[in-house]
Amino acid sequence: MFGEYGVYCNGKLIGMVCDDQLYLKPTNAGRDFAGDIGEGSPYPGAKTHLLITGDLWDDRAWMSQLVKVTADALPPSRERKSPRKGPARSAK
């Protein structure tokens, strides 16, 4: 997939860290809360995400609220089904 780090909140993938930069999934609530913030793609071919610069990481209250509003705005995660195993075959 993207080959770096996934960021989860309450079981939802809300963003990723790629090349030492934090990218959060774009939501209307996240954009409204963050205000005038940059956007970028975490890897070639990816959709545009909110780009959270390092100077904003240190503001714990702001980051916590941004993560919360982003996670709340995303749909529930889908349960993944394990691959179905067929009947055992006997060796002949």
Element layout with pairings:
Layout: E1 5-9, E2 12-18, E3 21-24, H1 28-34, E4 39-40, E5 49-52, H2 54-57, H3 60-73
Antiparallel strand pairs: 1-2, 2-3, 3-5, 4-5
Helix pairs in contact: 1-3
What is the overall silhouette? elongated
Total number of helices: 3
Residue windows where pLDDT falls under 50 for at least 5 positions: none
Structural class: alpha+beta
The helix/strand series, from N terminus to C terminus, equals EEEHEEHH
Mean pLDDT: 87
Radius of gyration: 18 Å
Spatial arrangement of strands, main beta sheet = 1-2-3-5-4
Biggest pleated-sheet summary: 5 strands, antiparallel
- As a percent range, the share of helical residues equals 25-40%
Strand content: 15-25%
Intertermini distance: 40 Å
Secondary structure: number of strands: 5
General description of the model:
The chain has three helices and five strands, in the order βββαββαα. With 92 residues, it is of the alpha+beta class. It has helices spanning 28-34, 54-57, 60-73; strands at 5-9, 12-18, 21-24, 39-40, 49-52. 27% of the residues lie in helices and 24% in strands. A five-stranded antiparallel sheet has the order 1-2-3-5-4.
